[in-house]
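User: Can you help me understand a structure? I only have the sequence.
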Amino acid sequence: MMYYTHIAFALLSSLIAIKFLNISNPYIFILIVCFVSLIPDIDNKDSKLGRKFKFVSMFFEHRGILHTIFPPLLLFILLSYFNYNLFAWAVLIGYLSHILIDGLTLEGINFLHPISSFRISGFVRTGAFFEIIFFLLFVGLDVFYLVKMVF
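Assistant: Let's start by predicting it. Here is the structure, written out as tokens:
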């Protein structure tokens, strides 16, 4: 998926999470979730973050270990251990939001790499028609939840 779709879905995920978690600062939480949702693609030298950190793609294959469940779980445990709960939940939700919707793409993800070769893939071609539909759906739901929160 494109970066803007990841951000739109991360925003939606953060707005939903705020309803269920005791978030002390929702604005910081939302910003962290949206930023972290871009991190898994840092292993792609053509992605938004990958262009700024090209060296990362020399060490990691795209949709390899950075597109698994392990980095967000490790970061969540580490941040929780040091009692940074706001950051722990924001990182977990942002990262998982990225992995979840990448599972809808034709390229898919192997969320247990390198332990398993099981791959989840969907029908969405990155940057094509269905991704735009998903993006618009996420933006519409974002607006709905934001309006609902204000009123």
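Now, to help you interpret it: Residues 68 and 111 are 4 Å apart (CA to CA). The first helix runs from residue 3 to 20. Let me know which part you'd like to focus on.
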